[in-house]
Specification:
33 strands; five-stranded mixed sheet; 502 residues; 39% strand; mainly beta; single chain
Length: 502
């Protein structure tokens, strides 16, 4: 009896000890000026935007509320932070880090009707029937299109849809004015969004039900964009949850589609399956058909990046960065016929646990990885696939972006279980070797039609073409075309008027 009692007591003590250790995780709040001891790159925190209890007042920003992601404009002048629970995107000046604007997502039927695109047949409402366009939107990720002219921002859900089972939406912001110019419906729980290199398509990945939507954006006129097709990765997840009791949709979502990237030639769209050891889904953009899933990498694929002939991915839970030659991956993908294929030969590098967003430096020599559970930013040398440094981040980072010149890395920390988070860290990066300036690839090909005098850029289908800014080459110089055209029109009108009245 005494022996059983002692064993029972020890079991309870062990359980309490382990539970206490799990709850009392240390929260990291590194200060401005913190510097890494990296071998080949040096990182220094040069600024912050924070909003947690007892945070430094000089860096407090009340609009930072569960920041999910960051995007630096291709011209390097400003950056955008998606504040998920704040239902807003915050815009900052890249040099001064001063807040320029807050784009709020508070929509109402009647008031905002003109912003909505024509409804498609792809996204029917099955649970809600009234005031469908009266909601607040929770921004997740975002991507630029049309050479940086537009920023696409999907909403995790409409606020009334507590379990994200009916259509959500995506806002399109004109980055010249940082105002919303278009709203479009999406599938349930969209997270990732990507623009093709030729600028003709925007892909919206729906974490909520195993589908991917393609929007045709070939026109320069937002009123002519349209939903082109809806693709299914194996099966559409049935959604029939409570309308009053919230469930965990971050886990109960099939393959949990996440990382999304077009191949350099735009022939294929690759989508990471974060759930169910799903691998990477492959979509043939030429036929707009789903081909199947490539397996063989580690489970829990979170983010995808293609650079210099390699496909890179982050493995969330285990905390790894993996890569494989893109041509080898595509050779395996071409054998798919609605099934799976196992691909071996992945190179792996262990980083911090909870590897989320990854980005590469302009040279492609370094991968920066935001590691959620480790609360660190890791740097991997791709020439050796080895870690060459890391630096502290405000606890539980998720999002990350790097400037086109590689000089700045911005990391968002969302938080976990009401701990950490509510922080944005801006790092300045010094390299042991000079980095090139990355060319803008955010759908800039559409605008290049204008530069080369293609008649498609100036016809009646593109009434705003003459006023569009072109972000060229190094991404730091903005060429405004159309001034001469406007002047010519005004001059012609002036002489016509004089002749008429003479």
């Amino acid at each position: 009896m005494r022996k059983n009692t002692l064993a029972h007591f020890m079991a309870i003590f062990a359980l309490l000890f382990c539970t206490a250790g799990a709850v009392a995780q240390p929260v990291s709040h590194p200060s401005v000026g913190t510097t890494s001891n990296s071998e080949k790159v040096k990182l220094t925190i040069v600024n912050k935007h924070v909003n947690y209890t007892n945070c430094p007042s000089e860096y407090r920003d009340a609009y930072i509320n569960s920041p999910k992601s960051a995007n630096i404009h291709p011209d390097g002048t400003k950056y955008y932070v998606n504040s998920l629970e704040g239902c807003a995107t915050v815009v900052y000046d890249m040099k001064t880090h001063e807040r320029l604007k807050v784009i709020k997502y508070d929509f109402k039927d009647g008031k905002d009707d003109a912003l909505w695109s024509k409804p498609s047949a792809f996204y029917p409402f099955t649970h809600y029937t009234e005031n469908l366009n009266t909601f607040m939107g929770k921004p997740v990720e975002s991507t630029f299109s049309h050479g940086g002219r537009y920023l696409w921002i999907p909403f995790y859900r409409r606020t009334y849809d507590i379990n994200a089972q009916d259509p959500s939406a995506i806002a399109v912001v004109d980055t010249r004015t940082d105002s919303i110019v278009k709203l479009m419906e999406t599938g349930p729980l969209p997270k990732m969004v990507a623009c093709s290199h030729d600028g003709k398509h925007v892909a919206i990945t729906h974490w909520g039900n195993n589908t991917v939507g393609l929007v045709n954006v070939a026109s320069l006129n937002p009123d002519e964009w349209f939903h082109e097709t809806l693709l299914v990765v194996d099966y559409v997840l049935e959604l029939n949850f409570s309308l009053t009791e919230q469930i965990d949709r971050d886990n109960k979502s099939g393959y949990c589609l996440r990382g999304t990237v077009f191949t350099p030639d735009d022939r294929y769209l690759l989508v990471g399956c974060m759930g169910n050891n799903g691998g990477i889904a492959v979509i043939d953009m030429q036929t707009q058909k789903y081909l199947g899933r490539v397996m063989g990498m580690m489970a829990n694929v979170r983010h995808l990046v293609i650079r210099d002939g390699y496909l890179y991915l982050s493995v969330n839970k285990a905390g790894y960065v993996q890569r494989i030659p893109l041509d080898k991956f595509l050779a395996a993908a071409k054998t798919l016929k609605g099934k799976t294929v196992n691909l071996q030969g992945w190179q792996s590098c262990k980083v911090g646990d909870g590897a989320r967003t990854i980005e590469l430096s302009p040279s492609g020599h370094f991968v920066f990885a935001a590691c959620n559970l480790a609360s660190k930013l890791y740097v991997v040398d791709t020439r050796e696939m080895k870690v060459v440094g890391n630096i502290d981040v405000d606890s539980y980072p998720v999002g990350l972006d790097i400037s086109n010149d590689g000089r700045y890395v911005i990391v968002t920390s969302q938080g976990r279980g009401n701990q950490g988070g509510n922080a944005v860290n801006i790092y300045e990066v010094e390299y042991d070797e000079p980095e090139p300036v990355l060319k803008n690839t955010d759908g800039a090909a559409v605008l290049e039609l204008l530069e080369h005098g293609d008649s498609a850029g100036a016809d009646e289908n593109n009434p705003i073409a003459a006023s569009l800014p072109l972000v060229k080459g190094d991404g730091n110089t903005t060429y405004i075309i159309g001034g001469a055209c406007v002047a010519a029109v005004l001059l012609g009108a002036f002489f016509f008027a004089r002749r008429k009245h003479s």
